[in-house]
Amino acid sequence: MDFTELIDLASGRLGGAVLYANDDFFAPKENLLKPSAPIFIEGKYTDLGKWMDGWESRRRRTPGFDWCIVRLGLPGIIRGVVVDTSHFKGNYPEQCSLEACEIDGLPTTEELISESTQWTEILPVLNLSGDSLNPFAITNDRRWTHLRFKIFPDGGVARLRVYGEVTPDWNRLKQIGGEIDLAAVENGGVVLSCSDMFFGHRHNLIMPGRALNMSDGWETKRRRGPGHDWTILKLGATGHIKRLEVDTAWFKGNFPESCSLEACDAADSSIEKVQEGDWKPVLSRTKLQAHTRHFFDELAEVGRASHVRFNIFPDGGVSRLRVYGTIE
C-alpha cells in the first residue's frame, strides 16, 4: 500500500502540534501541520518579509541547522513522510532529516529539548527539491510519540505529513474496560478501501468528533448505474460489536437512502482475502435521514469481528461511522 493512504499521525485534527522551533522568523512553526494544502498569495508581505504558508527560518550566517519538535497526534509506527516545499523556490532547505522518540505521558517542551531526551534517527540526511512534494519511506517498525525535524541549513517547508499505523495503549484500554469505538482512528481503526470517494476521503468516517462541514465526511459521486457504494474498515482490535452510530451530519440533499453493515473475522489477512471473507450481516438494510445521528442498538450477533463492510444505497455521503463493542 502507498504509505500516503495511511493515517497522518501528525495531523492537527488528531492532536498533532509543533511544540518548539529554534527559529521561525519568517513564517510560524504552526503552519507546518495545517490540514489544508499550502497556498501562495502574490504581493502579500508582513513587516518581517514575504508572507509564506509554511514554517520558514531566517538565513543562517553561522554553522549548524534549524529544527523543530513535533508531538504526534496519535502514537504509532511511521511508514513514510512527505516534506512539502510547495511555493518555496529560492528559499527551501537543501536537506532534511528526522529523529523520533517514545515518551509516555505528556512531557514538557523543556524536557523534550533537553539533552536527556534520547532521539533515534529514522530518516538520514537527504536532499530536498524546492516547490515539490518530497516523499520518503520509513523502515523503522518502532512505536513513536514525538519527532525532531531538522532542515539543513535553513529555509522554509510548507507542510510535514507523517503517515503510519496508530498503535494505541491496549493495556490501558483493557484496564478501563467497557465498550469502545473499535473503528475509531484513535483506537487503531483504519479504512482499508472503498468503492469511491470522489467528494470526501474515506478516512473522514473514523475521525474524532462530529464533522465540521460537508467536506469532512466520506462522500461518493452520483451513481448512474446499478449497484451501491461501500467501504471496508479494519477494526483497531478484534472484538464483539454491540451498537452502531451512523451520522449523516451536513448531508441534506445527498445522504444515502439507506445503509447496512456486515462483519467478518479475518485478522492478519490481506485486503484481497478480507474482501472475499465470510461476511455476516450485523445491520440489515435500514433507511437513513438527512443531517441526523442514527443510533442502532439492536444488532445481529456475529461473534468475533476484525473487519466491517459498510454499505450505502445507492450512493451519497456519511460523515461518521462508530462501531462500539468490547475488545476480544
Distance between the termini: 27 Å
Number of DSSP strand runs: 22
What is the CATH top level name of the largest domain?
Mainly Beta
The secondary-structure element order is EEEEEEEHEEEEEHEEEEEHEEEEE
What's the overall geometry?
A: globular
Helical content band: under 10%
| CATH architecture descriptor of the largest domain | Sandwich
What is the overall pLDDT average? 95
Whole-number tally of structural domains: 2
Largest β sheet strand count, sense and barrel closure: 8 strands, antiparallel
Low-confidence stretches: none
- Strand content is 35-45%
The H-level CATH homologous superfamily of the largest domain, spelled out, is: Galactose-binding domain-like
Please tell me how large the radius of gyration is: 22 Å
Structural class label: mainly beta
CATH-defined topology of the largest domain: Jelly Rolls
Tell me the number of helical segments per DSSP (H or I, 4 or more residues long). Answer: 3
Structure, explained:
This protein is mainly β and 328 residues long. The chain has two domains: 164 residues, Jelly Rolls (Sandwich), CATH 2.60.120.260; 158 residues, Galactose-binding domain-like (Jelly Rolls, Sandwich). It is 5% helix and 42% strand. It is built from three helices and 22 strands. Strands 1, 2, 6, 7, 8, 9, 10 and 12 form an eight-stranded antiparallel β-sheet that branches. Strands 13, 14, 16, 17, 18, 19, 20 and 22 form an eight-stranded antiparallel β-sheet that branches. A hairpin with a 2-residue loop joins strand 3 and strand 4. It is globular, with a radius of gyration of 22 Å. The model has no long low-confidence stretch (mean pLDDT 95).
